[in-house]
UniProtKB/TrEMBL annotation:
Solcar repeats lie at residues 146-234. The keyword Mitochondrion applies. It is a multi-pass membrane protein. This is Mitochondrial carrier homolog 1.
């Protein structure tokens, strides 16, 4: 399971129930193919619906704050400065670009999401876990960990493959969106953007920011699965009447917690995707030209900005803008 940290890209696996027969040649689309197509369509729909949220999130990540902070109160009742939340920021985008402006960069993002979803399904079918053994709290520690490791390794392989395949379109989508900052039109259509990146940066240009994204995915999967396993196996008592219900939600809850731990990898990956690409959002004063993703990480860490953009509702102005007003 992988929560929605950077959209629907690479986050969903295609599942087909047991006993579903493959399509027969010459007889149209079979049940399995129909289920796959439906899942891809639903994934694309979710990507479109969530796009304004991720668009605003990206602009906050690159440090674009076009609106001044407003005075609010914290939990202690003291006055502090808050930066505009999602709805105020989205309204600003509409005022500048119209309602269609909220969907800038959507096309490459939908393609990226589709490639991710399809590739996960293909990998899952090509390398099925035929002898998957479900973990039981009756297993000893060594046996249960072996089962969890096997399942997580399989999930990791699917996620890494889908991430690599979908990342070039993710880079294009990011660059299309951050053009809002400098009002550029350098990256417009998918094919023209591919030509621009190939001409200016070569093959590597399509994979900038890939390493931190993959590291974040891998850390997320292992931490989430292992924590959920230990809680379900050793903390939830079978004698408790709601034990099965609790176990069904453990992984989801752990995912939310672990996503905060891995957020800096997402942030660094997205910033590297737009850094030094000829757009204002990837150049000083918004960001220095980074030599590597580690350089980017250290820069953000030194400024206390590794979690910039992690919240879009209650955003306190960061130091030195954070002031207590009497």
């Amino acid at each position: 399971m992988l929560l929605v940290l950077d959209g629907a890209e690479g986050m969903a696996a295609i599942t087909v129930g047991p006993g579903v027969a493959p399509a027969t040649p010459g007889r149209g689309m079979g049940p399995a193919e129909g289920a796959d197509a439906l899942f891809v369509t639903l994934s694309a729909g979710f990507t479109a619906l969530s796009h304004p949220l991720l668009y605003v999130k990206l602009l906050v990540q690159v440090g674009h704050e076009p609106l001044p902070p407003t005075v609010g109160r914290n939990l202690l009742g003291r006055k502090v400065l808050y930066l505009p939340g999602f709805f105020t920021y989205a309204r600003h985008i509409v005022e500048v670009d119209g309602k269609r402006g909220l969907f800038r960069g959507l096309t490459p993002r939908i393609i990226s999401s589709t490639l991710s979803t399809v590739s996960r399904g293909r990998v899952k079918k090509a390398f099925p876990l035929e002898d998957m053994e479900h973990v039981s709290n009756k297993d000893d520690v060594k046996t249960s960990l072996r089962k969890v490791a096997k399942e997580t390794s399989h999930e990791m392989m699917m996620q890494c493959v889908s991430r690599v395949i979908s990342h070039p379109l993710h880079v294009i989508s990011m660059r299309c969106m951050v053009q809002f900052v400098g009002r550029e039109i350098k990256y417009r259509g998918v094919f023209s953007s591919i030509g621009t990146i190939w001409k200016e940066e070569g093959l590597w240009g399509f994979f900038v920011g890939l390493v931190p994204h993959i590291l974040g995915d891998v850390i997320f999967l292992w931490c989430c699965n292992l924590l959920a396993h230990f809680i379900n196996t050793y903390a939830v008592d079978d004698n408790f009447s709601q034990a099965s219900v609790i176990r069904s939600y453990t992984k989801f809850v752990m995912g939310i917690a672990v996503s905060m731990l891995t957020y800096p990898f997402l942030l660094v990956g997205d910033l590297m995707a737009v850094n030094n690409c000829g757009l204002l959002a990837g150049l000083p004063p918004y960001a220095p030209v980074f030599s590597s993703w580690i350089h980017c990480w250290r820069h953000l860490s030194a400024q206390g900005q590794l979690f910039r953009g992690s919240s879009l509702l209650f955003r306190r102005a960061s130091s030195p803008a954070t002031l207590f007003i009497d």
